[in-house]
Write a structure and sequence with these properties.
The chain is elongated, with a radius of gyration of 39 Å. Strand 3 and strand 4 form a beta hairpin. It has four helices and 18 strands. The chain folds into two domains: 73 residues; 348 residues, Porin, CATH 2.40.160. The chain is an alpha+beta fold and 446 residues long.
């Protein structure tokens, strides 16, 4: 084949050269032989250049193959759990936190001026894959813990759960989590709400931060609806002291929680209109005494009546509804929550047999809050609150148990996640005990 190509090319070159000669300039034999020798030299040079190109092409092909192999090897390392790329735990783990420091200057029968680092929270989350993740929060309250009244702090595990997306738009979590009720129980970082302190209703009626051990299903439905359904530890009433019949003081917070009678929580939310959230939720518990449980080894003494007899079978239903609306600079938030508890709670007493359950079969609260965002940094609000934790009766210790608060203030965001707060409160209750004063705060989240 090479010889044929050489012959053809040589012929072409010869005839081309001859064609360039005039008809009357016919070359001699010696001239023809010289032309043939020149063309043979040119063909030899072309053959050398062709072989060089082929060698270079083969070298490039080998290099490309080696590069592909190296890339595939690096990809395998990156995909491994301990790799240095997208599979690295450092790229799948998030560390953050939030906190706030508050100053309260309030006056009633006595003056109270108090400065407090109310909470400092660190959280860590990790994404195992696209469908499985872990989330946790660890909180320190009131700076430090000690064995006297000057150290009222606590270290608390606020969240620690595994969440799995078992289907498109549907998930289930297991572990310690925040109960899906109200507005701020799940989202309560200080830069996300108005006012130095959290509102009274979502502190006393919905005992935020309300955290439990249990299982919760959640998902997105069509047309802007979403749902949450959970089964978890319930509240646990005790007669140890006067405060422990309050809803807030009955949280078990996942600490060796009694599970004789779990609680069931469900919520439905609508966010199909921009700027609007509508929500309703309910929680039901068959027995808030946990079958009259007493456990002396951890100081739980159960529930007794005014005669010293054990009490159990106190069922309870918490209902809540809220609206959050934002249009332009204007915002409006409103929430109502109410407990309906078995009437036997009216007979529950403290350990000294003084009646503490009177009127507690009905407890409710609501608030209304318009707000105005002056600019990206400054926002103002006005909030009216009413709570009554003994609304089931108006006699004895339950008489004049309602409290009203009006709070006006401003938030100034130094950055999206750093806020300065000021508000002034006017508080009075049916017993004519006033508590007026101002509050200052600084809060952060990262």
């Amino acid at each position: 084949m090479k010889r044929a190509i050489t012959t053809v090319m040589g012929s072409i070159c010869i005839f081309g050269s001859m064609a360039g000669l005039a008809a009357d300039d016919t070359p001699t034999v010696e001239e023809l032989w010289t032309i043939v020798q020149d063309q043979q030299a040119e063909l030899a040079q072309l053959k050398q250049e062709l072989e060089s190109s082929r060698r270079q092409s083969r070298t490039v092909e080998v290099q490309m193959l080696e590069n592909r192999q190296r890339i595939e090897a690096v990809g395998e390392v990156v995909d491994q759990p301990g790799g240095f790329g997208g599979g690295s735990w450092t790229n799948q783990t998030t560390i953050g936190g939030y906190g706030e420091m508050l100053y309260n200057d309030e006056t009633s029968s006595s003056s109270s001026k108090e400065l407090d680092v109310q909470r400092f929270v660190l959280f860590a989350s990790h994404e195992f894959n696209d469908n499985l993740r872990f989330f946790s929060e660890l909180e320190i309250e009131h700076s430090f813990i000690g064995d006297d009244a000057r150290s009222p702090g606590a270290v608390e595990l606020e969240q620690a759960y595994i969440e799995w997306d078992y289907a498109r738009n549907h998930s289930v979590l297991a572990g310690m989590h925040l109960v899906p009720m109200g507005i701020i129980n799940e989202t309560h970082e200080p830069n996300t709400f108005y006012g130095v302190e959290r509102n009274r209703i979502e502190s006393r009626i919905i005992p935020s931060t309300y955290r439990v051990n249990g299982i919760k299903f959640a998902g997105q439905l069509a047309s802007g609806f979403s749902y949450d359904l959970g089964i978890h530890e319930g509240l646990f009433f005790e007669s140890g002291n006067g405060g422990e019949l309050a809803i807030r003081d009955s949280r078990q917070s996942g600490a060796r929680a009694e599970m004789d009678n779990p609680a069931y929580t469900g919520r439905l939310r609508y966010t199909g209109v921009p700027g609007l959230e509508l929500g309703v939720s309910m929680q039901y518990q068959t027995d808030m005494t946990q079958n009259g449980s007493t456990r002396g080894n951890i100081g739980r003494d159960g529930v007794i009546d005014v005669m010293g007899n054990p009490v159990d079978g106190l069922s309870g239903l918490l209902s809540e509804a809220h609206v959050v609306y934002r249009t332009g600079a204007w915002g409006f938030t409103a929430l109502y929550a109410e407990w309906d508890i078995d009437g036997k709670i009216e007979n529950v007493a403290n350990s000294d047999l003084s009646n503490n359950g009177l009127g507690r079969d009905r407890q409710y609260g609501y608030y209304l809050q318009p707000s105005y965002q002056v600019n990206s940094k400054l926002g103002t609000f006005l909030r009216y609150e009413r709570t009554d934790e003994r609304a089931g009766s108006n006699s004895g210790a339950a008489k004049d148990s309602a409290t009203n608060r009006t709070i006006a203030g401003v938030n100034y965001w130094l950055a999206d996640n750093v806020v300065l707060k000021f508000d002034y409160q006017f508080e009075d209750d049916d017993a004519r005990r006033d508590l007026d004063g101002f509050n200052l705060g600084v809060g952060w989240q990262f």
